[in-house]
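Sample pair:
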Amino acid sequence: MKTAPHLLKKARVGLSAVVVLGASLLLAACNSAPQQQEKAAPAAPGAVSGTFTILHTNDIHGRHRPFAVAPGNATSQTGDPGRPPSSFEHAGTVGGFAHLATAVARVRQQRGAANVLLLDGGDTFGDDLLANQTKGAANIRLMNALGYQFMALGNHDYDYGSARTRELQQLAHFPMRGANVTDKATGQPFLGDPTQVFTLDGVRVGILALTYHNTGLTGNPKNTRELTFSSGLEATRRYLPGLRARADVVVVLSHQGTKVDERLAREVPGIDLIVGAHSHDLITPPRQVAGVWVVQALSDAAVLGQLTVQVQNGRLTKVEGIAPPLWTDQYPADPAVAALVDSLRAPYRAQLEEVLATATGRIGRQYKSASPFDQLAGELLREATGAEVALLPGVGYGISGFSLQRGEKLR
């Protein structure tokens, strides 16, 4: 999905990533999750029982600091007529990696870090000015600090070109994958094997990542000309038998959107759980589609998806889940991660904090119908070019996820 965390933000591209050695090493030591080994001893059929936790985010879009929200249209896929809106119960401030770090640490302490898996559904670094200045490096460093363990590639995760995505994979301490994106030169999955098996409380949990199948048609074709995108359903059919043989529970980490995820659940047997992304939906508690559990955690790390999964005698018997908003007054900032955020922002602070305008009223966003920012962008294009008519692609410009409130500064 094409979203932008700040209205009228400047499209600047940085020349190099920020390197933060001391803070990164400290955070890696303090916050990184343990790496569960895949080569666990095989259990007898039907003998495996255990309970584990999956934490999940999606569509962060480079958002790294807290931001203000209020009741009303809360996500760009649900602001259109005929779709029920996701909304916050009251006004306040949510999100930010430092506050997300506190939420993740609490769950790891409560459940035991070895029994917790932290996943991201993609569209992780595109659209934010700091992300653009560092070409995604700032966001990867923050994810490393929190100990993310697997990520599906979203359509915006190729925004700096596939070569840069390769470089970011080298920087990341976790795999970034998609079973339905291949390298044209080799015919192999881009960046490597799109599956991994983690052992949590004795249960082998297999992860299969899917990217957005239409990335090549919706993004800048130059960014992905070395890649081929294909059906996530077909890719799942290819990989599922092998993964099923290695795992007790199969989780698809999908950047395809809820409608496609529901089709995947109905048409491809053998999946236990789909952790979704792309459509910025809040799906909590988990719902079942054709016997498959489906979840999604809104966007911008405004909430943290938390799933408790129970397995008895080799069968997934229960999935419970919540996705609490990360209100900053309820989740105080982790000091080390807050310091890392500040250090990453420091070289670009003047640009990041430049005020361009002030909103005189609430500015929401639709995705498939005209929104206030669409109209503004059209007028700016006409003014700049002298054209009588400005045509915009049907992707919906506007604020990433959340409406801009009256009096809020545009940066």
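Residues 378 and 384 are 10 Å apart (CA to CA).
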